[in-house]
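Lab notebook, bench 4. The sequencing result for the construct came back, and we need a structural model before the next group meeting so we can plan mutations. Quick request posted to the team channel:

Model the 3D structure of this chain.
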Amino acid sequence: MSKKKVLIIAQEMEPYTALSEIASVSNKLPLFLNENQCEIRILMPRFGTINERRHRLHEVVRLSGMNIIVNDDDYPLIIKVASLPGSRIQVYFLDNEEFFKRKSVFEDSEGKSYDDNIDRAVFFCKGAIETVRKFGWAPDIIHCHGWMTALIPMYIRAAYKNDPLFQTAKVIYSLYDSLSQHFGYDEFASKASINNLEETDLQDFRDTDFVDMHRGASKFADAVIKVGEIKNPHIKEWVEKYENHS
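Done. Here's the predicted structure in token form:
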């Protein structure tokens, strides 16, 4: 019997980046799955806070060199790799100097969210899809962790719905008690657009004039997993509505 192929896409993961519960879960899950006869690959951003020497990252030249379009501009995608400690599982880090070189993750030194966080998320999600295509590796399950991965379910189900690599994949979105970033809808729609996406696809992310990344991801995912207790009132209200209509 062939192993299940599981792709984990996470915005953070121990021991590389640890800001929330996401980091712990996305570390333990692949180790557990690997012990239970699954073939695992992991994608995450190469934030500037990650120490490349300590974690033994090195560039994968055969995967690097693609350009990812965000809002009509091209950005080079660099792929680096390391082994998850305690295993042979490969963690692939998506890097771009403009988006990820800074020495903090989502906020500046004064606690203000970066103005280009939506650009960074779009770059990461588009780059993740293109990296898997370059692998030539068809996952059975794609498991997304964190708001920064929220575009993946839509891209898989709408923009890449005819790609043989993804046609049989099941997409899971894990919802955590953490704030999504707050973006204006018009800005989001122009930057997130890709391939043959319809306006109706992007509308699933709309919350009045703004964007709810969790809502959009949940619309396209095959399953949504609520991780831990949800205390954030906005997310809690949305989860209760989602559960009542499921």
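The first strand starts at residue 4 and ends at 10.
Will bring this to the meeting.
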